[in-house]
Amino acid sequence: MSPQPQFTLYGAGSSAVMKVVLMLEELHLSYRFEHVKIFRGEQFSPAFQALNPNGRVPVLVDHGTNRTVFESGAILIYLAEEFGEFLPDKGEERYEVLQWLMLEVSGIGPTFGQHLHFTRFEPNVSDYARERYTSQAIRLMDVVEQRLQERKYLCDEQYSIADMAAFAWLGRLEVFKLPHEGRKNIVRWCKDIAARPATERMEQLARQIRDEATANRSQAGEDDMDRLFGRGEFLRRS
Ligand SMILES: N[C@@H](CCC(=O)N[C@@H](CS)C(=O)NCC(=O)O)C(=O)O
User: Which domains does the chain have, with CATH numbers?
Assistant: First the structure.
């Protein structure tokens, strides 16, 4: 009988989840991937909300320490500290990594998410929203492009959790239909990260989970989509 993996990662095929998969793979950790079918509303179940009251993936359960962690940024920091890799343990270098990680968590992730919502899921509801989020996503790409001008990675020579987090979005510019033309540093950095064996393993898992998610989405009814997007009868006004 093979031993129980140390971790369970509750996730879907999204960038917020795949940045954690990248880290687990970089650290060669054993984990079980539990696909939470968000198009079918599994994130709203009481069992899942007991793990994350915010009802979002990823959530990581560490069976070794008996700890449950939600929010992708917190999970990356948790793993980095537990295993002493990909985040310097003190000083200026640590805060360099943390500030670029926070830029992804609070800026790149949410902005790319809204860009995707208003271009793919609801392209016709608001020109203003669509153009605003696309423009802000491109602006953030240019912040990264500039940062990478004289650096191999976001924080110099050290590949870190900040790179993993940003790559989860910037490594998929074609999918988001965002332009990489003229952004040669992002292209070079993405190529470097994509060539890492851990990234290849992450991409393999991502393909499998995204295929499953596409199948789930095709079975989702209007009600499921309304609940996912918090609209229709799920819209909150007060
Ligand atoms: N800030 C969160 C964002 C997580 C997030 O938005 N996850 C999406 C990924 S698909 C989700 O769970 N969506 C389900 C929903 O919106 O109900 C993180 O970085 O962990």
Answer: 7-85+198-234 (3.40.30.10), 91-195 (1.20.1050.10)
